[in-house]
Amino acid sequence: MKEIGGFFELECPFRSELHSSAIKLNTGRNCLEYILRVNNYKKIYLPYYICDVVFEPIRNLCIQHEFYHVDESLDPIFNKKLSGDEALLYVDYFGVKRKVIELLSERYDNLIIDNTQAFYSNPIQNVDTFYSARKFFGVPDGAYLYSNKVLDDPISQDCSYERFDHLTKRLDCSAKDAYSLFRKNSSLLKNQPIRRMSNLTEKLLQSIDYASAKLDRERNFLYLHDFFKTENKLDVDCANINAPMVYPLFIKKDGLRQDFINHKIFVATYWPNVLDNTNISSLEKDIVSCVLPIPIDQRYCTEDMNFIIKSYKEFSCGY
Ligand SMILES: Cc1ncc(COP(=O)(O)O)c(C=O)c1O
């Protein structure tokens, strides 16, 4: 029975949801598990340059895996033929690799696209594709999956409220104060079963102004690119950007990441786990160590981008 009256819940305006027609699940890694299970894949090819949480479903399902390298444009170096029970996973790195995905989709049937860094990139028809919302918006979890097949098993609904406090604490205090909660809540996402997206996350995702966030991201991205394009070793195709996750600045300058962090410009490392694999190329080592994912999201304006550029100019005097 519907509850009527009593105290109020958190209020979120209803706008729209970008991936409203997708299968809504709890995490990106569980979208991958869903894809692997529903297709009964026995082996997956995946890039060396990948986040370690992607291995959770591969381990859970005891699926074989084999790595492939990427080149200096982050394109896959892969020309194997896939058999029916083998899949190829590729990541739309930083949200700037759409063209590669279109080419791969023409070449391979059993393609899995990890769009956790490309929330705005539309799925290609008949290509299993998944997204993770928390890389783009202030939500504790939540993921979208496009797949033609439906898993038969019943899936219960997730609850997110106990993983929510880093978001509220960051608002009331600061990122520094809330960071340990963020770490705690991120680790609570590990080894969770596949669940349907929580009500809380769904309501939050229905309250976002997606069009405005997209414009902000693109404006900031292009502004940074205009300044960094000659120094950036990554050849970024600016003609086709679609609200990328970050501005990926590939630049070999020791200490630059830490300099940014010291200036409270939080530049993550994607992904330290890759360095543990002794078979990676020197290029992949450089990509992990030297690609600086600079924030360009909807929280920031041109003035903030100018601050980033000004800070970079200051640090650069020391190199
Ligand atoms: C490339 C990549 N794929 C998949 C995932 C998994 O997404 P989620 O954290 O929603 O499970 C992540 C991040 O955690 C990621 O960086």
Task: Kindly describe this structure.
- The protein contains ten helices and ten strands.
- The protein is of the alpha/beta class and 319 residues long.
- It folds into two domains: 23-205, Aspartate Aminotransferase, domain 2, CATH 3.40.640; 210-317, Alpha-Beta Complex (Aspartate Aminotransferase, domain 1), CATH 3.90.1150.
- Helix 4 (165-172) packs antiparallel against helix 5 and helix 7 (210-228) packs parallel to helix 10 (302-316).
- The protein starts with 22 loop residues before the first strand and ends with a helix.
- The relative contact order is 0.15.
- Bound molecules: pyridoxal-5'-phosphate (PLP).
- Pyridoxal-5'-phosphate is lined by residues 27-29, 50-51, 53-54, 91, 114, 116, 132, 143, 189.
User: What's the structural domain tally?
Assistant: 2
- Helix percent band: 25-40%
Order of strands in the sheet with most strands? 1-8-7-6-5-2-3-4
What is the overall shape?
globular
CATH level-3 fold name of the largest domain? Aspartate Aminotransferase, domain 2
- Measure the end-to-end span: 66 Å
> What is the count of β-strands?
10
Determine the strand fraction and express it as a percent band.
5-15%
Provide the gyration radius in Å. 20 Å
> From the structure provided, what is the oligomeric state, counting identical versus distinct chains?
single chain
